[in-house]
Amino acid sequence: MSAISTEQKATISVDADLVTLVNVFKVKPENQQLLVDMLVEATEDAMAKLPGFISANIHKSLDGEWVTNYAQWKSVEDFRAIFQNPTALEHMPKIGKIAESSPVLYEVCYTKHS
Fold first, then answer.
1. What is the mean pLDDT of residues 6-29?
2. 33-68 pLDDT tens trace
3. What does the pLDDT read at residue 7?
4. 114 domain residue, yes or no
5. Range of the domain at 49
6. CATH no. for residue 84?
7. Which of 21, 23, 29, 108 is an S-S bond match for 64, by CB 3.0 to 4.6 Å?
8. What is the per-residue pLDDT for 5?
9. Closest Cα partner for 29 from 5, 69, 74, 63?
10. Strand partners of residue 103
11. Is residue 66 part of a domain?
């Protein structure tokens, strides 16, 4: 018999009551893995410990020029609380030195599965 987990996982569903951050970073290929490492560190050190955090999924492009963070939060307010958290804020300037980002909040409006 396994224990019941309270861990939440990424859910892509029109019925999910959450907000999705899609943050696309433009980066020089020589800095792509460094950026991935920095985003993972920021997630582990700060984001995942904040109320309302559900998941973070880091993707890197095959051409080395892009990194995308697909993150989910319980609410817009939970996401915005990042910007009041000193531990979360300390990661942002370092990331900004090596990449340009385009963060946008979304809601899922359609999915199709085979």
1. 88
2. 999 999 999 999 999 999 999 999 999 999 999 999
3. 62
4. no
5. 27-106
6. 3.30.70.100
7. 29
8. 41
9. 63
10. 23
11. yes
In one letter, which amino acid is 106?
A: Y
Question: Is it the case that residue 32 has pLDDT exceeding 70?
Answer: yes
Return mean pLDDT, the chain: 92
Q: Identify whether 39 is part of a domain.
A: yes
Query: Helix/strand/coil (H, E, C) string of the chain?
Result: CCCCCCCCCCCCCCCCCCEEEEEEEEECHHHHHHHHHHHHHHHHHCHHHCCCEEEEEEEECCCCCEEEEEEEECCHHHHHHHHHCHHHHCCHHHHHHHEEEEEEEECCCCCCCC
Whether residue 89 is contained in a domain is answered as yes
Phi, psi for residue 112 in degrees, rounded to 5: -140, 130
- Buried-state track 50-87, b at ≥16 Cβ within 10 A, e below 16: bebbbbbebebeeeeebbbbbbbbeeeebbebbeeeee
List the one residue out of 3, 23, 30 whose CA is nearest residue 106: 23
pLDDT in tens, 73-82: 999 999 999 9
Q: Which residues pair with 23 in a beta bridge?
A: 69, 103
